[in-house]
Amino acid sequence: MSKRTYWQDNLRLVAFCLAIWFLVSFGFGIIGLDWLNQIQIGGFQLGFFFAQQGSIYVFVALIFFYARRMAALDRKHGVNEEQARE
Predict the structure, then answer these.
(1) Which residues partner with 19 through β-bridges?
(2) Where are the alpha helices (DSSP H) in 23-80?
(3) Lower CB density within 10 Å: C or N end of the chain?
């Protein structure tokens, strides 16, 4: 597989992660705040939860998701560390 294909797959993964990041932080935390505040979980408004805690959980999950997917992408294209040492 070519370097161009690897780079396109990498950019697609980064774009997907950025879209999720934007949706959670800007979409849920700012734009949809009033709508989400109509729902309560544990006595707290859902908009407050997303703005304060939920976005942090999603960001940490995105880090692990990206690391796992990038490792798979590296293996698929033959650029992971184990193959580079051989």
Answers:
(1) none
(2) 33-36, 46-49, 55-77
(3) C
In a domain, 86, yes or no: no
Q: How far is CA 8 from CA 1, 5, 35, in A?
A: 12, 5, 36
* Within a domain: 65: yes
Query: pLDDT tens across 25-66, in order?
Result: 888 777 877 888 888 878 878 877 777 787 889 999 999 999
Tokens for 26?
A: 């800007």
Q: What does the alpha-carbon distance between residue 32 and residue 20 come to, in Å, rounded to a whole number? A: 15
- Give a yes or no: residue 45 inside a domain: yes
In a domain, residue 85? The reply is no
What is the DSSP annotation of 20-37?
HHHIIIIIIIIITHHHHT
Provide the pLDDT for residue 40. 85
